Amino acid sequence: MDAIARIKQLGMPRRNDELWTFFPVSKIPAPEFPDACACEEDFSDEMDFAALLPIASNARTMVQSIADNAEEIAMLKCNNDFGRTVLNIGKNAKASIEILDNKVLHPICAERFDVNVGEGADVEIFFANPANDLPLAFRHFHITQAAGSQVRFASIERGNGISRVSIDDFLNAPGAKFECRTLNMLGGTAESHHRLHIYHNAPETTSTQLSRNLLDGSSRASYDGSVIVGANCTKALSSQLVNTILLSGDSSVSVKPVLKIYHDDVECTHGNTVGELDAEQMFYLVSRGIPQETAKRMLMSSFAKETFYPLPDSVGKKRLLQVLA
Amino acid sequence: MLSIKNLKASIEDGTQILKGIDLEVRPGEVHAIMGPNGSGKSTLSKVIMGHPAYKVDDGSVELDGKNLLEMEISERANSGLFISTQYPTEIPGVNNVDFLKMALNSKRAYLGMPEMSDDDFKNLCEEKMALLEMDERYRERGVNDGMSGGEKKRNEILQMAILDPKVSFLDETDSGLDIDALRIVANGINHIMAPEKAVILVTHYQRLLDYIKPTYVHVLRHGKIILSGGPELALKLEEQGYDWIEEK
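^ inputs. structure came back:
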């Protein structure tokens, strides 16, 4: 089934659809699709409207391949409402991929990234949108990982519109690791929604998720993260943590961790905290003469930077911390 | 200099911890406050600085004639009060040096002075770190982040040295210090001490007072100072504990 047929079969997202529970679905304009789909791939298993939208809209596809053992730093930029990028990362390759802002100011923008990571490859994918003013933006990542590969995904969102990032990561062979670190710093009426499905399809696979939110005004964030550990996937490790600081009475966060585990010998954890700035830390700073507002900014900055400190030194880490400086 | 009169303070559930503290601290003096656990020693420093967990029920606290209790916390610090708590708070993500510079320039702004230049601040930092025998790693770390108990206490004295307060209230600065670290920290405090300044030390042991000679020693129990004396009182407490005071 091609993407157009599948997206029409799914229909527009609804709040009672598990993948769109927290999203303001009424804000999605009804798309018009071409008569024929340019992509011949079979999408009959695809469940996410946002993953299908660029393909069903016949978005131009850019294919980029990184050779085995190569090292590359790349920047990707979509210049249209809809875009699709296919990245093939060779065995033992090292790649740093920054996704730049799409500046097309249309009512909706949707990008899809298919990332195929070869054995032993080490990949970082990151974006740090300084001010994404797109009214409605979807980014979908479909990542498959071979044995011993590592993918680190990191993002900062500080836009004014409504964004949704969805990730399906498939840890298909032993030793594959996926690490996801995201930060939302939102104000006004901005919204950021994250939907992740991590599939542990092999033994000794690891996934780590940390999502942090600093929410002011009447902004909203949501985190819908699922970890699925298959049968015979012994020694799978997974952790999921969401930390939110609500800076105003009108901001809100919704969190839905889901663990589907079909094997006994695994270690999977999840946690969620919602609070205000740490009162003891605030007292410490002001007791050294630092004014309250400055201390508040210092603590917010500290909370934000901590999201990325554990990452190994890399182009991505440097860029993300630079944005927060 | 620092004048505390009939200070009473309680926690949120209404339990009164300080039940009428009177303490006069004059320039050049070192006051040691001793007392059993739970007597209110740590609470006293936090109440004076305005910790939000405590409510002042009665009394006054003045620094050079100004009512500290009416000031914002940062204003109390910038007026010349410094407290070091027993367990210094960790703030990962806030760089130690950036924090120190921000604190120093906040004080300078409060006093109507211009910001200190980067070079001058660097030199000041180097001088004070050398005094406390601190290595360069401190510059890169977050405030008290991942530091041992002893490293935190040394870091507190570094802050005191840079902020140059009039009155320093040091709560169990000797806890967590090995013999060498105790000597270094005590030397640091002695070096910072000057005729126009004062220090209040909270301690359980005589060993800190071997290095820093107190002018007065006070015993705090059940939220009140029940006995005051000279340095000899600390020696007696070390030998005999606190029970004899109640017997008296």
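The first helix of chain A runs from residue 3 to 10. The first strand of chain A starts at residue 61 and ends at 66.
thumbs up if we can close this ticket
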